[in-house]
Each structure stands twice: as structure tokens, then as C-alpha cells.
Amino acid sequence: MQVSNRIFKIEASQSLVMAARAKAMKAAGVDVVSMSLGEPDMDTPEHVRRAAQEAVDNHWSHYGPVAGIPALREAVAGYQNSITGNAIPWIADDVLVSAGAKMAIYNAIQAVVNPGDEVVIPTPSWVSYSEMVKLAEGVVVPVQTDFENRYCLTPAQLRAALTPKTRMVILCSPNNPTGSVYSGEELDALVNVLRDFPEVYILSDEIYNELAYGVVPPSFSHFSDLAERLIIINGVSKAYAMTGYRLGWLMSKNKAFVNACIRLQGQQITCATMIAQKAAEAALTGTKECVEEMRQIFAKRRELICSLAQKIPGLKFHEPQGAFYLFPDVSAWGTGDEVAERLLEEAHVAVVPGSAFGCPNCIRLSYAISEEEIRTAMDRIANLLNNWEK
Ligand SMILES: Cc1ncc(COP(=O)(O)O)c(C=O)c1O
């Protein structure tokens, strides 16, 4: 029996592969510190858990509307308006609730990319964008960004990548894996280029927007003239420690596009889990203190990991401005693949090789782990790198 050719076009998610290897080693009794997964280690806030429990007790156990329950779509629109001050006045109809931001991105790509259409992706980039484009038979146009520019896309790089075949540009800020946040001026400059290409959709993945340190990440949602071709992606996974609820969304003012996504989702999952939708509604309409508490914990861990990384001679990195990853260049020792492999096998620290994100010189360390684990992991990493023998 065969599986489809389509499946062999895509890679397995490297972060999941490394996490699974770390877990298997742990199960076999090895003391592994895992810095491979991109999820908060905190508990989901209590009022959100309570809402989920109440949803179970109140029988939110039936199918719901494909695009999401009205109260949640309303809450999402209100949430975005509270951030970007009605620059684009979002309403519930602009929102499609999905089973995670990942699925929202998948829907968006499937809904607009035809075979042969080009999708521009600044690299390093999150592992799944390119694979989703391949599934839509689109052409991935990776644009290699530079360490010197914090791996942010420049207007000149963007302009050079755009062609009459470009259907979509995918941007992610705060960025996974680099931790970089585009400044308002940087975003302005990119938008100026995009204004010359009115047929191109802009997919802005803002899933880490609540997790920034010392900067307020500007949103594409500030640019009202882009409204018809803008797709904003977000969700509750990262800010509210709700990865397992699988709840995210896309927003767009383009009715035809939203309807296309609704049609697609109607044939896939019908709707996101109702219990998760009720929990997400509680998250977005409830206190944001829990988000700030978690952000402060990440901010402290970020300080810690940066101070420890600075003590490793030869390790090149930028202080992350957002998300919860450090993305050092390890080319002084070898490729990211070699370093990641030896870190796991010899130092018992699981990280994700940069090749998974299109940047083979680097490794990604997630600091969504306790301070104690960060200290242990960085100690082990320093030990291996300082005594590196080929
Ligand atoms: C950049 C980026 N976008 C989207 C997602 C998907 O998030 P969700 O859990 O909402 O599917 C992730 C998760 O790792 C991510 O890092």
C-alpha cells in the first residue's frame, strides 16, 4: 500500500523530531534538558481553565459555526482593535477561528496559492510556512536575511524577491526562530515596497505579539490601506500558555478570502473545538495580568540565557527582542546540525538545528524552561563548546 507523493514533498517538523528524541532519551533514564519545543512551560491561567470546565459542564459539546462562535470572533476583533486602535476597524465577520494559528496559516495558504504561485518567505523562518506552500503546490521563494541586520528583511531584499508571480509574502514578528522584532520604521519601509505590488497578499504572523521585551511590536494592522490584502494571524497558544487547546485565528477584511477559508475549513474540521473556543473567549475578555506575569518570567529568563551565552567565546547572537528563543550562530564549531547532534548525544541538551529554519549556521534554544534548567543547559553547552574536539 502506498502513501501519496504529496507527503514526500514535505519535511517532518524538526522541532517535533528533536523534542521526541529528547523525550525518548528521558524515558530511557538519560537526564536531558530539552530546549527544543516552542511552548510556554507555565500552566494555563486559572480563569481560562475554569471557563473550559464550565463549557464542558454546560454542554458545549455540539458542532458550532464553521468560522467560530460569535462571542469569540467578537472578542478577537476587539482584542486586535485594542492593540491597533481601530486603524483597521476589525469586526467579528473578519475573523476565522481555527484549530491553532498553524491551521489558520494552512487555510490562508490553501485559499490563495495556486500551483506555480510564488510565496516570499524571509529566512530563517518558522519550519511550517515552506511546507504548507509546497502542499499548495506553490513555489517557495526564500530570502536569506543577514545576521548583521538581526535577520530582518530589508526593503531592497523584498523588492528583489517580488515578481509578477508573487502571490503572498509571509512575515513573522516577533520572530521564531530569531527573536527579532521589526521596528515601526522597518515595517514602514517594507510596506512602501508592498504598495507597489497591490496583487500580493501579506500574511503577518503575530503569534508572539504579547511576548516582547523593551519594545512594542508594531502590527501590520496599523496600515489601513493594506486592509484588503492583509491576513493577520494570532492565537492563544503562546500568550496564554494554551498550546494544547489548539486555538488560533486569522483576520482579513477581504470577504472573498475569508469565505474561501470558511469553505475550506468546513470540509476539514467543521469548527475548532467548542471547549477551546469558550476557553479562548475567557482568555481574551478576562484579565491580562496573567499574560504580563508570564512575559516578565520570560524576560528574566532571557536576561539569564543571554548573560550565560555571552560567556561562551565565539558564540555569535543577538539579544532576542521577542518570543522565547535564542538563535546563536555556531559556525565557529561546525554546522548547526553537527552541533545540535553532539549537544544531544554528548551534553544531553536538545536544541533544534538552524537548518530546520533555513539557517544551517545556527541552532535554536528555547528558553521556555525554568531558570534552573537554563543554567544546567548553558553549563553543558559551554562545556561542550569550550572543549570542542573535531
Ligand atoms: C511563528 C509561529 N507561528 C505559528 C505557530 C503555531 O501556533 P499554534 O499553536 O497556534 O498553532 C507557531 C508555533 O510554534 C509559531 O512559532
Structural key phrases:
alpha/beta, Aspartate Aminotransferase, domain 2, 13 helices, binds pyridoxal-5'-phosphate, seven-stranded mixed sheet, 41% helix, single chain, three-stranded antiparallel sheet, Aspartate Aminotransferase, domain 1, 390 residues, 2 domains
Write the layout of secondary structure elements.
Layout (H helix, E strand, L loop, with lengths): L4 H5 L4 H14 L5 E2 L11 H12 L12 H15 L10 E4 L2 H12 L5 E6 L3 H9 L3 E6 L10 H7 L4 E7 L11 H11 L6 E5 L24 E6 L12 E4 L3 H12 L7 H12 L3 H21 L15 E2 L9 H12 L1 E2 L1 E2 L9 E4 L4 H16 L4
Parallel strand pairs: 1-10, 3-4, 3-5, 5-6, 6-7
Antiparallel strand pairs: 2-8, 7-8, 9-12, 11-12
Helix pairs in contact: 3-10, 4-10, 5-6, 5-9, 7-8, 11-13, 12-13
Bound molecules: pyridoxal-5'-phosphate (PLP).
Q: Could you give a quick summary of the protein structure above?
A:
By secondary structure, the protein is α/β, with parallel strands linked by helices. The protein has helices at residues 5-9, 14-27, 46-57, 70-84, 101-112, 127-135, 155-161, 184-194, 255-266, 274-285, 289-309, 336-347, 371-386, and strands at residues 33-34, 95-98, 118-123, 139-144, 166-172, 201-205, 230-235, 248-251, 325-326, 349-350, 352-353, 363-366.
CATH architectural type of the largest domain? 3-Layer(aba) Sandwich
Helical segment count: 13
Give the mean pLDDT. Answer: 96
Proportion of residues in extended strands: 5-15%
Largest sheet: 7 strands, mixed
Number of domains: 2
CATH class of the largest domain: Alpha Beta
What spatial form do the alpha-carbon principal axes imply? globular
Structural class: alpha/beta
- Could you say what the CATH topology of the largest domain is called? Aspartate Aminotransferase, domain 2
CATH superfamily of the largest domain: Type I PLP-dependent aspartate aminotransferase-like (Major domain)
Number of strands: 12
Cofactors, ions and other ligands in the entry: pyridoxal-5'-phosphate
Q: Which stretches of 5+ consecutive residues score pLDDT under 50?
A: none
How large is the radius of gyration? Answer: 21 Å
